[in-house]
């Protein structure tokens, strides 16, 4: 009995140390990536680099590399994909949520959302080539929207429930119009969900590599494409900077919305 | 003004939703159906540059121990191991560190890894676990190894260790947070307390109450994680071997090769993968955890 109590007491005592270790593991990738972006030479077997400098960052921020334009391109593409998918998913999700054939329609929405973008992209290439949508930003955006739209529908079909429906019905019963129902009730009530969905569809697009390289034919140089390009050139320090740029905006957004994001999981 | 019930009023306001559904069908479902039909045609010789009429030649290769089965085997193995490790570790950590995860610094920090894309995760694993990577340098300084060659192969290795590490690293924070969220939402503390009152021991409470409820509640997420790993591309592209390759990497390779005789196999692979994924989604739906009620 005493042994069991001692084991439990040790377990409880170790909890703060385990929490600190987990926190360190979570932060390590960011510290390591940023550290790597400050290095210009770091050969085996050195555990610490000989010197740190902001030279590479200065070059990137000064516009002498293509990273700045890739960042802006990624930002533009992801923002547009997220906005389109969120708005379209909002209305389509509502239609599906209240539809008598909800399970079947929801199943259809799951298909693009769960499929491997690369495998599906391979099959879609013929259609995209015929439509002149390969090797350009429009094609990449349409392809990404397909996946983000599926996610958005699945997301909103869970949001539209009996409570929201009753609120909408109340507006109509009291003589309100569709516009008033959306403006005064539905949009304010779903503001949180809209923000989360925008954020998550933004990430779907922001992180996309395989589909972008396939449909964009290497010509649409978003940030993930740049990361792989630098890795392919064995240019790890530039790859680290590109990774930092890729990771920082979502990390900050996630941190700002942390409670928000997981309420809908 | 006509007075109508809410239901009839709603009936007239669905045009936007119908338009949305039509847009989804036009943008996603119809192209997917067309593409899968095209894949069937290509893999049976009815379409494509080498099309010469119907042939079962490419499908027959499946029976000859082709690399397609090796690819499926590797993908299923990586997905299975990644899911088991991720779920086991996140269950342990979520239950053990539930309090620090609920408030304090860790409750913020645990969200940061969610911002890591697969591309960056693969790059990090390569940097940390390759022969000249950070872990190897530490072991060298500690005197545990004398040369790069003595460091165990964890990247581009036969067991897909690097690929599994990257997927576990990506999935772990998500499932930890999900388990903590479900624990609180389902009031498992109260349920556990009830079990204890009825005479259950701590282990019984854990294995008969907490763990089964947590696993049941996130069954869909587990299936989706399995599907995501099965079809992952960026991670095995950097951390995998040339042979066998995971499904997405092999599909892309066979599609993009100069040797166009390989293309039908790319479509065949895509069709098999689609069949597996659809079957898994059906399983998730059948289990009822994809909520149909509203």
Number of alpha- plus pi-helical segments of chain A: 13
Tell me the span between the first and last alpha carbons of chain A.
41 Å
Mean pLDDT over the residues of chain A: 86
Which stretches of chain A are low in confidence, meaning pLDDT under 50 for 5 or more residues running?
none
Number of helices of chain B: 15
Short précis:
Chain A has 265 residues and is mostly helical.
SSE diagram, text form:
The complex is a heterodimer of chains A (265) and B (294).
Chain A: H1 2-37, H2 55-61, H3 67-97, H4 102-114, H5 117-130, H6 137-159, H7 162-173, H8 178-189, H9 191-206, H10 210-215, H11 223-232, H12 236-256, H13 258-262
Chain B: H1 6-11, H2 15-43, H3 57-60, H4 67-96, H5 98-102, H6 105-109, H7 118-129, H8 134-141, H9 161-185, H10 188-197, H11 202-217, H12 219-230, H13 234-239, H14 247-256, H15 263-286
């Amino acid at each position: 009995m005493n042994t069991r109590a001692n084991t439990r007491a040790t377990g409880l005592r170790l909890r703060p140390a385990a929490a600190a270790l987990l926190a360190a593991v979570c932060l390590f990738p960011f510290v390591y990536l940023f550290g790597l972006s400050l290095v210009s030479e770091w050969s085996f077997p050195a555990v610490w680099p000989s010197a740190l400098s902001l030279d590479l960052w200065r070059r990137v921020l000064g516009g002498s590399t293509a990273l700045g334009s890739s960042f802006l391109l990624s930002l533009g593409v992801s923002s547009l994909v997220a906005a389109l998918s969120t708005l379209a998913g909002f209305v389509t999700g509502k239609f599906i949520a209240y539809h008598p054939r909800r399970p079947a329609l929801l199943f259809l929405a799951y298909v693009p959302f769960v499929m491997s973008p690369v495998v599906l992209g391979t099959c879609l290439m013929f259609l995209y080539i015929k439509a002149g949508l390969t090797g350009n930003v429009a094609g990449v955006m349409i392809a990404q929207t397909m996946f983000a739209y599926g996610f958005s529908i699945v997301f909103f079909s869970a949001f539209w429930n009996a409570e929201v429906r009753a609120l909408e019905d109340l507006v109509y019963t009291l003589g309100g119009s569709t516009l008033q129902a959306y403006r005064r009730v539905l949009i304010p009530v779903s503001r949180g969900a809209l923000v989360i969905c925008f954020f998550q569809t933004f990430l779907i697009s922001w992180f996309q590599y395989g589909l972008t390289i396939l449909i964009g034919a290497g010509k649409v140089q978003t940030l993930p494409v740049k990361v792989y390009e630098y890795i392919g050139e064995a240019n790890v320090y530039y790859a680290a900077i590109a990774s930092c740029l890729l990771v920082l905006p979502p990390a900050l957004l996630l941190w700002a919305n942390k409670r928000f994001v997981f309420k809908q999981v | 003004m006509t007075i109508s019930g809410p239901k009839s009023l709603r009936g007239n306001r669905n045009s936007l939703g119908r338009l949305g559904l039509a847009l989804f069908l036009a943008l996603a479902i119809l192209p997917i159906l067309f593409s899968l039909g095209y894949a069937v045609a290509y893999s049976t010789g009815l379409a494509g540059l080498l099309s010469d009429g119907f042939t079962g030649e490419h499908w027959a290769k499946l029976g000859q121990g082709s690399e397609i089965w090796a690819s499926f085997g590797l993908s299923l193995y990586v997905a299975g191991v990644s899911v088991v490790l991720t779920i086991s570790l996140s269950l342990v950590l979520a239950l053990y560190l539930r309090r620090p995860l609920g408030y304090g610094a860790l409750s913020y920090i645990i969200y940061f890894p969610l911002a890591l894309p697969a591309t960056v995760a693969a790059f990090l694993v390569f940097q940390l676990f390759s022969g000249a990577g950070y872990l190897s340098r530490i072991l060298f300084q500690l005197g545990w190894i004398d040369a790069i060659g003595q460091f165990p192969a964890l990247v581009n290795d036969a067991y897909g260790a690097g690929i599994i590490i990257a997927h576990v690293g990506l999935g772990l924070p998500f499932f930890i947070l999900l388990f903590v969220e479900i624990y609180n939402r389902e009031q498992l503390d109260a349920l556990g307390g009830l079990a204890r009152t009825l005479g259950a021991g701590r282990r019984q409470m854990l294995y008969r109450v907490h763990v089964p409820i947590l696993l049941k509640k996130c069954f869909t997420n587990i299936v989706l994680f399995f599907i995501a790993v099965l079809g992952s591309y960026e991670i095995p592209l950097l951390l995998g071997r040339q042979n066998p390759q995971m499904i997405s990497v092999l599909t892309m390779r066979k599609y993009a090769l100069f040797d166009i005789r390989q293309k039908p196999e790319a479509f065949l692979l895509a069709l098999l993968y689609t069949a597996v994924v659809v079957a898994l989604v059906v399983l998730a739906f059948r289990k009822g955890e994809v909520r149909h009620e509203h």
